[in-house]
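Fold this: Isoaspartyl peptidase
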Amino acid sequence: MKYTIAVHGGAGTILQTNMTPGLEQNYKRGLQQALNAGYSILENGGTAMDAAVAAVIVLEDDILFNAGRGSVFTKKGLHEMDAAVMNGADLMAGAVCGVQHIRNPIKLAEAVMLKTEHVMLCGDGAANFAKEQGFVFEPDEYFFSKFRYDQWNEMKGSDAYQLDHSVKNTGKKFGTVGAVACDMQGNIAAATSTGGMTNKNYGRIGDSPLIGCGTYANNKTCAVSCTGHGELFIKVVAAYDVSCLMEYANMNLHDAMNKVVNEKLVAINGEGGIIGVDAKGNFALLFNSEGMYRGVKTSDGLNEVAIYK
């Protein structure tokens, strides 16, 4: 049985002209480390869920990516993080939104799935649950990165918000991380984590933690993780739409994702991308933006990381 892991680290206006060779190498290294973490679980007979979560933890711990440690600043100068997981075998799902100081929000989302009767916990309630479960809380300094702080300072005090970008005036980079996996048993899973938008206000939540919008998995169809302008992904219920096109229109993974990414989202100016796998280990990594931090590793020897179109 073919097994596969795929990851993304955000999409958007990511241009080679704005990237130093050193920074590009660091992004690629982070993506490869995430792939390796997930793949080592798969090749030892582990589950798709464990592999997807392990890959996302690596990206959450990497300050380059807008999730976990590298999360952007909100309007109040805080870090509010969202995450979700879904298991294709039994449709079990867990999510958290608006959580602070949690080192690995993806682990908390998984705990919601495994330890509660609920799908989503938010804010203070999620924090209380995390304390009960013995989660690691980190101080504000852990989440501080100078380039995120500078990004926020540019718009502090205004009502503007900004989709994450790492270099001034390079346009939009939609900072989310995610992983999808298919294991030896033919089970699939998806995991997504994000720090949201710079200078976001009013407790804004995007698509990442919303099951069916930014994250979805069903063994009958696909496991997908989305990255992009979350509001638009919510409006088209992007993740579930890929699954529906496979289930009801008999499309394959690539064609279903292509219809959502390059037709339905484009029609409403929704920029971003989706990564997906099916239960046969097939994968697709599609985006309608200038670039998407992405990678895939399969049991038949493929190992690729890429950034640009």
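Confidence is low (pLDDT under 50) at residues 165-170. The CA atoms of residues 295 and 305 lie 4 Å apart.
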